[in-house]
Write a structure and sequence with these properties.
With about 170 residues, this protein is mostly beta strands. It has one domain. It is about 0% helix and about 50% strand. It has strands spanning about 40-45, 55-60, 70-80, 85, 85-90, 90-100, 110-115, 120-135, 135-145, 150-155, 160-165. Strands 1-2-3-6-11-10-9-8 form an eight-stranded antiparallel barrel.
């Protein structure tokens, strides 16, 4: 199994890429019957990592977590070129799903050096989000980014994802 693979996740059997939830599935904040807790989305620049070009890490997880070491932040590696003016550029972005990262990355407040020569992470933004998230797709609206963003993700195959970013 690939080092970043998740044993409980696999490519769709149909061979066609899954679809992210439709816009109609995007709940409003406090929507009645919405069982989901508020989400947090964070973007960090990861540089000087051994053997890996500089890139962005996109983290998605619960807005609050009592244990900063809990590995609950879904994580996606995006190319460095996806960064534009302190945010994600609009359009289509290829991404690779990584193993879940620690909750602390969802609220990273300052740059830090990682142990073991794994480089440096520098926060770009952290924002509250509402939306739908599933194993093979997500649709999120971020509040607190300028401009407000809508991020849609769909698994293409294995750890490969297609992410689309546009203004909310």
């Amino acid at each position: 199994m690939h080092p970043g693979a998740h044993p409980d996740r696999s490519a769709p059997a149909s061979g066609s890429p899954p679809q992210a939830p439709a816009d109609s599935a995007l709940p409003t904040a406090g929507a009645e019957g919405s069982p989901r807790a508020p989400l947090r989305v964070a973007l960090a620049l990861h540089s000087r990592s051994m053997g890996v070009p500089d890139h962005l890490d996109l983290f998605i997880g619960p807005e609050a977590c009592a244990d900063p070491d809990a590995r609950i932040a879904r994580t996606y590696r995006l190319p460095r070129a996806a960064l534009e003016a302190g945010s994600l550029r609009q359009g289509n972005i290829d991404a690779v799903e990584l193993e879940p990262h620690r909750a602390e990355y969802l609220a990273l407040a300052s740059a830090r050096e990682l142990s073991g020569g794994r480089g440096r992470v520098e926060p770009v933004f952290s924002a509250r989000a509402i939306g739908e998230i599933a194993e093979d797709g997500f649709l999120l609206r971020l509040d607190g980014t300028a401009p407000p963003l809508r991020i849609r993700g769909a698994r293409e195959r294995g750890e490969q994802w297609a992410i689309t970013v546009d203004r909310a």
